[in-house]
Amino acid sequence: MYLSRTAEYALRTAACLTRLGGENRVRARDLAPLARIPQPYLSKILRRLTAAGLLTSQKGHHGGFALAREPGEIRFVDVLRAVDFEPAADHCLFGWENCDENNPCPLHPEWADLKAQIEEWASTRTLADVERGEGSFYEAGG
User: Fold this and answer.
1) 1 burial class (0-12, 13-18, 19+ CB within 10 angstroms)?
2) Whether the predicted model's global pTM rises above the 0.90 cut
3) pLDDT in 10s for each residue of the chain, 142 residues
4) Which of 1, 68, 73, 138 gives the lowest tally of CB atoms within 10 Å of its CB?
5) Domain harbouring 55, CATH code
């Protein structure tokens, strides 16, 4: 798996909020089963996404979380970086400390290609792509 659990959960959270109507406020306890994320873990992710300015939160009777901007203005990479996941981070699959183009491990060229593709994907896709996408979290037993 390339994405950390936190990064995966952050993308799920943003996707669910988008599908539920980005401007509609959703409580963490209602979002947790839809996103299939334990509520305590979800609460931490919601706080980080809010601190990054991607979500708004409101306490009280009509409280909950909502997207802070239009879905087309929130890129996947913004969501990932909000939880400290950097798609293009240098990480050697062989565990070398100094793996780069000048000192490549045996998997460096292929891994570098994959990282570039993931960076491109995360930088060019927005929550509007999720909004337009097919599939439902209700269908998958969520």
Assistant:
1) exposed
2) no
3) 478 899 999 999 999 999 998 678 999 999 999 999 999 999 999 999 999 999 999 998 889 999 999 999 999 999 999 999 987 777 788 889 888 889 999 999 998 898 889 899 999 999 999 987 766 655 544 4
4) 1
5) 1.10.10.10
